[in-house]
Amino acid sequence: MLSVQEALDLASSSCGTMDITTCGFTPWGPESCPSLEQVMASRPAASSTAALAEAEAEAARDADPEDEERLRRQRRKVSNRLSAQRSRARKQQRLEELREAAARLRAEKQQLEARLQALARHDLAVRCQNARLGAEASALARRFREARRLLALRRLAFAALQPRPGVAPAPAPPAPLLGLASLMT
C-alpha cells in the first residue's frame, strides 16, 4: 500500500494536475493515457520515508502559498480516499461477520427445530402411555372394589351359616359363593 507522499508523487508525476487524477476521472482517452512503465519511470527514486519527508519539507519551503494550498488539498484528498478505503474494508468485514453469524444461527435454528419435533413425539408417546396406564388403573380399582364387595358378602354368608348358641339353625340349602374365583383371573 502506498504512503500518502508516494501517492501524491505518483499522481503529480503521472499527469501534472492532481485534481483530476485524485477524483477518479480521467479526461483523456486510452491512447493518451500514460502507461504503467511511464508512471513508474517518472516516480522519484527516493524510497525511504526520511528522504520523502526531506523532499516534502524542501518543496514546502520553496513553494509559494498557492502551491502549499494545492499540496494541502491533495494530501487531504489522498487521506480522505485512504480513509474511505479503510471504511469500506471495515464495512465489508462486518458484512462477512454478519453473514457468518446468520448462517450459524440458521443451522442452530434447524437443530433446535429437529430437537423440538423429537421432544413433541416423545411427549405424545408419554401422554398415550399415561392415558393407557390411567385406564388400566381405573379398571383395576373397579375390580378391587368388586372383590371387596364379594368378600364382604362371603363373610356375611359365612357368619349366617355359623350356629349361634341357643338358636337352632334353620335348615336351608347353602348359598353358592360365585364370582370370587372369576375376579381372581
Automatic annotation (TrEMBL):
The keyword Metal-binding does not apply. GO terms for molecular function: DNA-binding transcription factor activity; protein heterodimerization activity; transcription cis-regulatory region binding. It is found in: Nucleus. SMART domains: BRLZ (SM00338). Residues 44-54 have a biased composition (Low complexity). Pfam families: bZIP_1. GO terms for cellular component: nucleus. InterPro entries: bZIP (IPR004827), bZIP_plant_GBF1 (IPR045314), bZIP_sf (IPR046347). One of its GO terms (biological process) is positive regulation of DNA-templated transcription. Keywords: DNA-binding, Nucleus, Transcription, Transcription regulation. It comes from the Eukaryota. Its main location: nucleus. The keyword DNA-binding applies. This is Ocs element-binding factor 1. It comes from Zea mays (Maize). The gene is LOC103644073.
